[in-house]
Fold:
Amino acid sequence: MTEMQANWKPLEDRLGPARCAGFMYMGRINGVNLYKHGLSRRYLNLSDDGRAFRQLDRGRFEEIPFSEALAWVAEPLAAMGETLESAYDAEYRARRSAALRAAGIQELRLQVEPDEMTTKSTSTEQAFPGNVTTVGPPRRNSISRFRC
Structure:
C-alpha cells in the first residue's frame, strides 16, 4: 500500500506558513486537498493551484471564492478567541483541558490502537462457517499536522 504524502504547498501559498499552524492534512479526493483546522474542526479544501472548494457530498465539490472558504474555517475561531495563527498543539490542548476542568466539565480521552483489524461478512460466514478474514495491521494515525 502506498502512503499519501501531505501536500502543504497550496495551503502555504494561500495563507503563509504562520496561518497554517492549526491545520491537519486529511487527504485528497478528486484532485482536492483536504485541510482540517484542529480548533474550528472545519475544512479548507484547495486544489493544487489554490482554488477553494466546498464539498457537496462524498467526492463531489463545487468551486467557491477563497474568501468564503476561509471565512467558513475562521468563524468559530473568532468565537473561541483564537485566530488562524493559533496552533492546535499540546499546549493548546492542555489549556483547553484546564478550562474544561475549571468549568466543571470532565474530559475523557480514548486512544485506540488495534494490533489488527478483522472483518466478518454475513455472506462469507454462511458460505464458510468460522471464516474470519484478517486484513492486517491498520495504518496508524495517517493525519499530518503542519509544522512551522
User: Anything to note?
Assistant: Helices lie at 9-15, 66-79, 90-102, 122-127. DSSP finds four helices and eight strands in the chain.
